[in-house]
């Protein structure tokens, strides 16, 4: 099947899924659950691509790894939403657009939350859409798979360590600087970036997949410049008295040994 047809079908499948979830948000008046759909929405694109063509080694590898990553991330974020309820970020977003544009809940939910996430996710997922071409797995694909697995482990361990730290009442008001968090302030975001650069390496080996470069570039920008690091650090600086000292000694993204002094 021509790749443009595959991409068009994928866009339609993604749009239907996001519109269905948008309809759910109209009933619940809460969009926070959309975070849990971020990973699975990209696995859906990988599966949609796989089912439209021959099951190539690269396609099976990309779809399998993407499903593993998406299932772990989706379940974790779903658990977090169920435990903590509505995300204050979204509450602030709705208040902003109601005040500045007089938008209703439905309009803001459709355009700013579900629509924007659908577009961003589609671009980020380009490696799992463009990288399922024919050919045997080579060194680049194996290197990409290894990088992706390292990324999944980094995310999983980092999230588990932070969850355990927060569950201890003695740590209230303290800064998490143990385990992976001793070497990077954002092991979960770093792991996420590794996952998608790994997918890109697998995809690039197929030729057409090399054109998927905007995907890992976009997720890296989102994590380091927009919704990831800036949002988290802005909140932490206001709520954690010792966070400035932690920032001074700890790498901001790529893991490295703590600075002394």
UniProtKB/TrEMBL annotation:
<protein>
    <submittedName>
        <fullName>Uncharacterized protein</fullName>
    </submittedName>
</protein>
<keyword id="KW-0472">Membrane</keyword>
<dbReference type="InterPro" id="IPR010721">
    <property type="entry name" value="UstE-like"/>
</dbReference>
<feature type="transmembrane region" description="Helical">
    <location>
        <begin position="137"/>
        <end position="157"/>
    </location>
</feature>
<dbReference type="GO" id="GO:0016020">
    <property type="term" value="C:membrane"/>
</dbReference>
<feature type="transmembrane region" description="Helical">
    <location>
        <begin position="59"/>
        <end position="79"/>
    </location>
</feature>
<dbReference type="Pfam" id="PF06966">
    <property type="entry name" value="DUF1295"/>
</dbReference>
<feature type="transmembrane region" description="Helical">
    <location>
        <begin position="6"/>
        <end position="24"/>
    </location>
</feature>
<feature type="transmembrane region" description="Helical">
    <location>
        <begin position="36"/>
        <end position="53"/>
    </location>
</feature>
<keyword id="KW-0812">Transmembrane</keyword>
<keyword id="KW-1133">Transmembrane helix</keyword>
<feature type="transmembrane region" description="Helical">
    <location>
        <begin position="103"/>
        <end position="125"/>
    </location>
</feature>
